[in-house]
Amino acid sequence: MICGNHIRLRGVERSDLPAFQKWLNDPEVTEGLSIYLPLSMIDEEQWLDGMSRMQPDEKPLAIELKQGHGWRLIGNSGFFNLEWANRCAEFGLFIGDKSAWNKGYGTEAVRLLLKHGFETLNLHRIYLRVYSTNPRARRSYEKAGFILEGTLREAVYRHGKYADVDIMSVLHSEWNAVPEGK
Question: Which of 7, 35, 52, 104 is most buried, judged by most C-beta within 10 A?
């Protein structure tokens, strides 16, 4: 497990799938995600089966919030498109439990994953894509040390119109310079 002050990251379990399926069928949750079609439980089970065959470094992690003496699932995150020769990876995250929005848990999850990526996986560069229509996510990424690299203009089509996709990244040396990043 990867533990922070309020949250922890752990391996995804089959018992997490009903919550993921519910969240990923909520238009508010998927507004900033690349998912745009309804997902069935079969889709989620097939996703998990596919993830189980991946290398451990590429498996997504469940995000849990400390609640009393227990833990409550609120989302997931992880690295994908790992390029070991270049020591870089793409990062993704979603908080599906809307009661956990706007409380800093996403930022804490980002910081924990960056620490894991840089200190455990020895990555040099971690990058992400964020829709220009998702300012909450962008603020979270900036607080964790991500810097805007560029914009893919009108690169995504959602709700009858095109939106920009911003590419953000953080380098290991930059993350080392951010005190909150540790």
Answer: 7
